[in-house]
Amino acid sequence: LNTFEIDTTTGAATLRANAPAIGTPSGPVGIVVGRRFLYVVNEEDGNIHGFAIEGGSGAVTSTPGSPYTLAGISDPFNLAMDAKETTVAVNDCDDGDYGFALIDKLTGAL
Asked: Can you tell me the distance from the alpha carbon of 49 to that of 57, in angstroms, rounded to the nearest whole number?
């Protein structure tokens, strides 16, 4: 997962070192970003990867227990987060089913 630092004066984006891993990213990847957390699905490894966004620097770190799996979701493709950032919904590419997970409001764990 590449992350960038944006210069607020010039708007220039600089690639950050130490990009967090999201498994085997050879398949399609979906991402949803909130104010404090972001989640990435990786169709290739079947996982949901959670990251906390550090408020001051914007750096990201894995949430506790990440990566996650959801029962019945073997081929995650898309995901969405509700406006209050309490729930993540994940779509399974193979059969169109949806899985849902509650977001721990303190840690971002699913």
From this structure: 20
Q: What span, in angstroms and rounded, lies between the C-alpha atoms of 22 and 38? A: 12
Instruction: Answer for the pair 97, 72: CB distance below 8 angstroms, yes or no.
Output: yes
Burial letters for 42-65: b for 16+ Cβ neighbours within 10 Å, e otherwise? Answer: bbebbbbbbbbbeeeeeebebbee
The torsion angles phi and psi of 11, rounded to 5 degrees, stand at 80, 0
Q: What's the CA gap between 27 and 75, in Å, rounded?
A: 10
* Alpha carbon distances (Å) from 53 to 81, 92, 97: 15, 26, 29
| pTM score, whole prediction | 0.81
Tens of pLDDT, residues 24-70? 655 657 888 899 999 998 877 888 999 999 887 788 889 999 999 98
Say whether the peptide bond before residue 25 is cis (omega within 30 degrees of 0): no
